[in-house]
Amino acid sequence: MRSIASWLCVLAFVGACTYHLGGQSAESKPPPGLEPAAVSGGAAALPPTAPIVDPNAPQLDLLVTKSMLYSAGVKHGVNPYLVMGLAWHESGWNASAISSAGAVGIMQVMPATAEADGPSLLHRHVNLYDATDNIDLGTAILKNNLDRYHNDLAKALVAYYAGAGAVTDWNKLSDDVRRYVWSVYRAAVAFRDGKGPV
Hints:
Blueprint: H1 4-17, E1 20-21, E2 24-25, E3 37-38, E4 44-45, H2 60-76, H3 80-91, H4 111-122, H5 131-148, H6 153-162, H7 175-192
Antiparallel strand pairs: 1-2, 3-4
Helix pairs in contact: 2-3, 2-5, 3-7, 4-5, 5-6, 6-7
């Protein structure tokens, strides 16, 4: 049987845990700052429930693409910002982009390249129209180029852009190819520094 002292302690504890204002417990009132604003006629106006949308915020699909590109970079051991910059330069992260030459998707991979490199690099066939496959294969191709050219970024990007036959010393590259390398590099740096378009 409990002593009177232990019952008094229990009652004191319960009383301390219940906060009363004018006979109502604290839980019956909204937290401070969330009380409904009173409007004319005595009715209360509830706060708006619609989400606040920032018109300058990046679109959700671009944020998802950014995450996919980052993940592919990590998966293949390639700097994720380089993957983002390459993809941005190639397609502006447009999954439905098709170039005049026939390159497809976010990473702008040629179908013939996918037929050969999908099985050899990913050990499976890929669907270039699927953004995940497109990013996976494009990043695997970039990683393969980096390995082939001993992490020489310029040569790896030239091979991605114009094929292995176009790889040569920097001073022998055409202005167009040099501009491509610099554009991808600048985009990668912008993403790394948090100044990229997304």
